[in-house]
Each structure stands twice: as structure tokens, then as C-alpha cells.
Write a structure and sequence with these properties.
Two copies of one chain form a homodimer.
Chain A lengths: L1 H11 L3 E2 L1 H8 L3 H9 L5 E2 L3 E3 H12 L5 E6 L3 H8 L1 H5 L2 E8 L8 E2 L2 E5 L3 H7 L4 E4 L6 H10 L4 E4 L12 E4 L2 H20 L1
The structure holds a DNA duplex (24 and 24 nucleotides).
Amino acid sequence: MYLNVLIQLRQDGPSTASSATVGQLTEINPAQVRRDLTHFGSFGRRGIGYDVTTLIDKIQQILGSDHTHRLVLVGAGHLGTAIASYDGLRRHGFIVSAIFDADRRKVGKRIGDVIVQSIDELDRTLKDQAIRIGIIAVPPDAAQEVADELAAGGVRVMLNYTPQVVNVPEGVQLHNTDPVRELLHTLYYLSRLEGVARV
Amino acid sequence: MYLNVLIQLRQDGPSTASSATVGQLTEINPAQVRRDLTHFGSFGRRGIGYDVTTLIDKIQQILGSDHTHRLVLVGAGHLGTAIASYDGLRRHGFIVSAIFDADRRKVGKRIGDVIVQSIDELDRTLKDQAIRIGIIAVPPDAAQEVADELAAGGVRVMLNYTPQVVNVPEGVQLHNTDPVRELLHTLYYLSRLEGVARV
DNA sequence: TAGATTGTTAATCGATTAACAATC
DNA sequence: TAGATTGTTAATCGATTAACAATC
């Protein structure tokens, strides 16, 4: 969130930002902003605030997005295509190294600079290249199988874009991003809004 | 999360689940599971556990996904197409009522049961139909403009799929789901993992 | 009756925030 | 010097969890 806001500020704002400014844009308490940042170091100047560019650099260092990271994408459907062609990935140093799909008709298709490969080649690719990040954008049924193959191939961090509950071995980080979960969350707020309106 | 896990349990598990079972699958402390549920009512039976089907019903009532909800989708690119054709939406009672895009070439295209309309018709559509949920899947530059139009048209809950920081009027719920944010989050864990490995 | 498991209390733990000295 | 704003302490607040009586 901070990175997003700061990149925005760099474009059109002054070169310096206070915790109050950042707090307003992120809807986070200014004291919280300062505390979050000081957890990693002392980046501001008393009486002045934070230099936007410097702070962006620092946060990128902390996150590790100051250098590039290759990843594999499994699933070349609509979602996979959206992820692969998403410009923001490259802007933050992510390189889609290879794309795999089980569907023969999708193999050979070009997405951005990458040609979709058969899922059968996933194993070998992971052995040849040391890739640590994998994105799962396959039908829910196949999610666990893909996760197993990725883990076996040395992938340490997975982003699961299916609603399927996936089990991974210890030492592997799994992050779930289910679009429906987000919508259901949304819906809960909507119910409450309308509930309030009805009363 | 609970809903996901319970739907999974309904498929292949026994008809009853304890807070320990749910806790294991969600990696949430059993006491937390019980506390979360009792916040909305008393759904379990001492000595027995929770009836899976009943609990699913209750959670769907709480979330509001026990009846259908129409939504509009703005943006018919890869991401929009992925969202619109995602089966899970319908399964949870979401109906993609209309899809809009600014790109003339996409207007008239069919995604699922819906024909993509020109963004110029968004205003009228929102006036004609009382739609409360909007999904923003457009290029970042256009996000704010779309949000403004949605808000003006009576949309109360928005899901923003762009990395753009979007401002909405009071009373409108905005949820951000930036895929890059998720990846950067992931990256932080990866840096830490590798940092530990290096030491 | 014995074992299992909930709902809930009480204790713990951690996160948030107000406040302020330090300092630009 | 006066105003602004950080970094950090101390106080507050809320979330998590252990423990257990209630009860199936």
C-alpha cells in the first residue's frame, strides 16, 4: 500500500511526504505509518517528512523488488493470460519466465514474449532453471496437483488463484487470492449497508 | 475461508465437523473458530460439533450469498473476461448483469451470456437497473473515472482490480485487489526465506 | 457414566494510538 | 526562535487463546 501511494505521489506531488499525507492516502493512522517504517530503519527527517524517492527505494529493498524475479505461471486461460500480460508485473521486477497449460490447444500460443508450453515440461523447466515463485491459475480441480509439482520442482512461494484449499509441504509459502472470497467479503458489507438502510 | 473449507468438507467428509477440524484446514485456532461463529449465533452442538450443511447455510445467510446479486463489470480485457467467465461467481449467487468497455473493438463481443456494451451506456444502465456492486477491471488510468461514474449511478460496493489508488464518496465501500500487491507481499516472504538460507 | 466438544469467561498477548521529546 | 514532523515511549484497545463449565 505504501509503495502504491508513494509511486502515485512521485508522479504528481512534492518531493517530500509526511506520515500525515501518507496516512490520509492509505487511511492508516500517521503514528502507525511511522511505526511501520521505523520497524525497518529511520528513513524520515524530523520537521521535514520523508523523501518520496528515497522511501520508494527503501521499501523496494525491503520487499526485494529492487532486483528482478523470475516466475512460472501455470494456466493459460483468461486469468493466466491476464496475469501474464499485466504490465505492473514487469514494472515491479517480475518476469514471467514460462507459462504452462494442460490444454493442447493452448500450447504454442504466445502471451507477451512467452510461448505456452505443455504442462508435461513443467518438471524439466523447474529442474533447469532455479525458479522460486509459481502462480497457479488453473481450474480448481487441478490446483493441488500443480502445487505438488511446483513444490517438487523447488518453488518456494506460490500464489493460488483458485478457491481450492491447497496443501503445501513445510517451508513453502502459499498465498490465496480467491476473487470470490473478495466478493463475498464485499457482499457482507453490502448486506450490512442495506440492513442499516432498512431499519 | 470457513465457507470454502466447509464446502470442501461437504463433498467428501462426514456430515459433522468440529472446530478442531475446521481449525486445522484453515490454520486457525479452534477457539478462534468457535468465537467467530458464536459472534453470529449458536450453530454447534456440544459433544458433537457443527453440522456441515447447516453451517454452510448459516454462513451464506450471514454473508448474504443465500440469494442472488447482480453486478456490473467495467473492462472486458483479459482480466474482465476472466472474472466474467469465472464459474465460482454464479455458484455463489453473483450474476454479471452487464459488461462495459471503452474499446470499440470489444463492444458487441459476447462473454458468457452477456454482450459487451459501450462504456457510454453505463450511466443509463445503472439508472434503469438498481445495481449495487461494480467491478473495476480497466487500465489504471481509467479507474478513478469509472469509480466516479459507478458511484454516481448508485453502486455502493466496488471491487478495484487496478493498482490505482481510487477515491470514493462516503457511503461507498471500496475493496482493492491488486495482483501485484499480492506478489510483492509474497516477495517479502521470499526475501526472508532466502535471507535465512544465506546466513 | 465417560468422552467429546461447544459456548464463554478470564488471562494473555500483540497491535494501535496518543503523546511528546528530539530535531530539522 | 517558532513551526513542523519524526522516532519512540507509554497507555489503550482489541484480538487471540487457554481453560472450563455446560451439555450432547
